[in-house]
Amino acid sequence: MEKEERNRQLQLAMDLYGKYLVRLAYTYVKDESKAEDLVQEAFIQYYIHLEDFEAKSSVKTYLYRIIVNICRNYLKSWSYRKLEWTETISKWLATSDGPEQRAIMKETSSEVSALLSKLTPKYREVLWLYYLEGFSIQEVSRILECSENTVKTRLARGRRLAKTTFEEGVLDEN
């Protein structure tokens, strides 16, 4: 297939399905900017594999399958999970110059510390090093002298336990 024809087919697909793909991606990631980035990635994949497309389904179906897979992979990615967790902690530890905000920050910081203290050391240390200290999975594995897969597993379980512990604490207060 010639380059001009590939470019024409890509442009046609972008014009016909672009908005729909962004809406679909948004239902997964809940962030319009990220949804647009993922759709752009889907169109790149479409362009790269255009010659492999066998027309067993419509172009629309093919593009939807690509974007669903890209969104699922993104949601499984460590970069997404780290971003999600870091944003949550950042909200908890947001700083401001006002005395009221400093008091709230101090209280929130102690709540986060209390939450982490309820976790077993193997989960607490991994969460602390990864999210609060900013070490990579590889660096955490070296620090704790365990495999990267062990770090990933402890991060996943630690997040789940922290969420459950936090939700139980909120329910107990009500």
From TrEMBL:
GO terms for molecular function: DNA binding; sigma factor activity. The keyword Transcription regulation applies. Residues 111-160 form the RNA polymerase sigma factor 70 region 4 type domain. GO terms for biological process: DNA-templated transcription initiation. It comes from the Bacteria. Residues 17-77 form the RNA polymerase sigma-70 region domain. CDD domains: Sigma70_r4. Pfam families: Sigma70_r2, Sigma70_r4_2. It comes from Viridibacillus arvi. Keywords: Sigma factor, Transcription, Transcription regulation. InterPro entries: RNA_pol_sigma-70-like, RNA_pol_sigma-70_dom, RNA_pol_sigma70_r2, RNA_pol_sigma70_r4_t2, RNA_pol_sigma_r2, RNA_pol_sigma_r3/r4-like, WH-like_DNA-bd_sf. Belongs to the sigma-70 factor family. ECF subfamily. The keyword Transcription regulation applies. This is RNA polymerase subunit sigma.
